[in-house]
Amino acid sequence: MRLTKLSMFLSLVLALMFIGPMTFGGTPAVAQDDETLKFVFVTHDLGAGIFAPVRRGMEDACALIEAACEFLGPQTYDPAQQVAILEAAIATNPDGIATTRPEPGVYDDVIKRAQEAGIKVVTFNTNDPTADEVAPAPFVGQNFTNYGQVWAREVMRAMPDGGTLAITNCCPGHFALEERIRSFKETLDAEGEGKYEILETIITGADEGEIFGAIEAFYAAHPDVNMITGVDYYSNIIAQFIKNNNLQGKLLAGGSDLAPAQVDGLREGYVAFGLGQNPYLQGFYPVMIMHQEIEYGIRPITIDTGTDVVTPENVEEYNPEFR
Q1: Which CATH code for domain 2-141+278-304?
Q2: What CATH number does domain 144-276 carry, 3.30.70.330, 3.40.190.80, 3.40.309.10, 3.40.50.2300?
Q3: Separation in Å, CA 201 to CA 70, 101, 177, 304
Q4: Cys-Cys with 154: which of 128, 194, 225, 273 at CB 3.0–4.6 Å?
Q5: Average pLDDT of 45-53?
């Protein structure tokens, strides 16, 4: 029965590839039989480095309970392709699906179909809370409102005398990013004493070459800007831009997550802060939540993975492989 479902899934995958390019990552963590639990993770942007530790957390949890797990998603940010992958996953009738839910309204129908089919659903990394009114699901990830507050306070700490700044944003409409920015601006207005001016929100896309070009174009037009800060994983490209152009000491960076370039900048001091969200836990806990509900009837809960503040002073306390 499991092999028949797997064949159906592979057929659907081949059909969906004609819709547009997708990347399907990973093999089951263990050999599959009729008693093995099967869990499928689906993200909105498999190419974003933030999901490497998420996947590692999933793999470690699945190994502990001897479940078969896969980690799938479009190669770059594409909610429509993500929904198509979710539909293909549902057709295989796994025991559980963990998915991100970044854009309001896009995922309601597909998640409801999974739940109505008896598949356990957990959201991770990104969740639109308004969707819980249509298709409630536990969430493992950070509180985005709190993130925005922490982010604003780190900018104020890095520039105590005030100054000008710009924000980079890869993906307009992405709930988590929009809420982070909203909360950031609200906190900066409330606590910044009028000393901070946001010159622009730079819409960069999710292609690293295009992101670098967008930052380069903005800086050419605003060479006196004090800081460029990023709301998403790709904020590490700001650090790369500073290093490539020898702007250390002239332009400050800081922003989301702990990609290698971000960590290098923290160690060398030209990145003022990185904000972590414990992505390893975002892969580990969904597996355990689904397993415990299926095996023991334990009610699933939402878990806040927090916002870590990493600075040049404490960067060596963190292992970026898991953050």
Answers
A1: 3.40.50.2300
A2: 3.40.50.2300
A3: 35, 23, 12, 27
A4: 273
A5: 94
